[in-house]
Amino acid sequence: MSIKESELILNPDGSIYHLNLKPEHIADTVILVGDQGRVSKISKHFDTIEYSIQKREFKTETGIYKGKRITVLSTGIGCDNIDIVLNELDALVNIDFKTRTIKSELKRLNIIRVGTSGSLQKEIDVDAFLVGTHGLDFSGMLHFYDLKSICDSAFEDAFISYTNWNPEKSRPLLIAGSQYLENHFNTDATKSGITATASGFYGPQGRKLRLDIEDDTLNDHIHSFSFNNLKITNLEMETAAIYALSKLLGHEALSINAIIANRAAGTFSKNPGLAIEKLILYTLDKIVSLKPETK
Prior knowledge:
Helices cover 26% and strands 28% of the residues.
């Protein structure tokens, strides 16, 4: 069945609506960053750059690094932007734009988020690299999708009970990342844990400037919660949505963050730029050495 023009929106040049990309513009391995300024901080390490395209906050560069074709794409901040980026990335590889039909053979992308985050555990120091084994969604966006069996309801129920979660908020959802990518990226050089994904930066992450928040004990409950040896290690704004949509669409996804703040200890990195640069090089070299997944 042909997908309606109102659902799959293409620009006059045939590119997809928000990202302004055509299928040939992206590689099978995609690095996602929040900040468009970070795209060039990654692509400067490429041997060659094939494409450089930008529309709004979505900047894309595709090139070659040590023989490996890689795309770097900026998403902007938040799960609403991830909803756009993941759906349009999948459409680029799995929908025929001429016939507006889903392809009979679907392609699987490797999607790696390289970001910054704040640690909720004192033992995870600033400047550490943290691999998110799971994403814990607080944003609510994912409830608009048929999540089927990708969530861990036992963990969610325990978390809701422990934190006395306000039922007027959306139900927290726990989604695992790619075990295939985690096995490769999680090494002696990294820490690991659950990455919580908030719907905002201030109130939703327990920050107070001039506004009171609904539950000023929530962060304390988040970092002290444990279930089946799983702990929530950091808090940011994209990972859970990346994991859930990638899993539903059949892609592999992993989030790895440079820890630039420790919320529990009240500390901040002395040189966050250097921590991010080291994480970029670590990620690029791990991508080059990534072996095809065996089923």
